[in-house]
């Protein structure tokens, strides 16, 4: 069993309230989670308006498949949000 995890930190300078931030986070999480069948949620900085940190995980039987899933999710998120990605932490267990 191979477990892949990724934590992505974004900056969304146009967000000025937690309500706006929630809409952005929910949209990203719902779309990516449904499309790629991964577990995804906001994991840090939940009270900071312009900082978004999303964590995701996938389970598979091959390292190459795990890397492919994480790459595809990252590419999808980059293409579907205006937020700037500041940091990406990846781990394959």
Task: Describe, in plain words, how this protein is organized in 3D.
There is one protein chain. With 93 residues, this protein is α+β, with helices and mostly antiparallel strands. The protein has one domain: Alpha-Beta Plaits. It has helices at 18-36, 63-79; strands at 2-11, 39-44, 51-60, 84-92. It has a 4-stranded antiparallel sheet with strand order 2-3-1-4, covered by helices on one side. The longest helix has 19 residues, at 18-36. It is elongated. The model has no long low-confidence stretch (mean pLDDT 92).
Question: What are the key terms here?
Answer:
93 residues; alpha+beta; Alpha-Beta Plaits; four-stranded antiparallel beta sheet; 2 helices; 39% helix
Reconstruct the topology from this structure:
Blueprint: E1 2-11, H1 18-36, E2 39-44, E3 51-60, H2 63-79, E4 84-92
Antiparallel strand pairs: 1-3, 1-4, 2-3
Q: What is the fold named in CATH at topology level? A: Alpha-Beta Plaits
Number of helices: 2
How many domains, as an integer? 1
What number is the mean pLDDT? 92
> What structural category do the secondary elements indicate?
alpha+beta
> What's the CATH first level?
Alpha Beta
Tell me the overall shape.
elongated
- Name the CATH homologous superfamily: TT1725-like
Q: How many strands?
A: 4
Radius of gyration: 13 Å
Order of helices and strands: EHEEHE
Quaternary structure annotation: single chain
Q: pLDDT below 50 for ≥5 consecutive residues: which ranges?
A: none
- Named at the architecture level, the CATH assignment is 2-Layer Sandwich
Order of strands across the biggest sheet?
Answer: 2-3-1-4
Largest sheet: 4 strands, antiparallel
N- to C-terminal separation?
Answer: 9 Å
- Kindly estimate the percentage of residues that lie in beta strands according to DSSP: 35-45%
Helix content: 25-40%
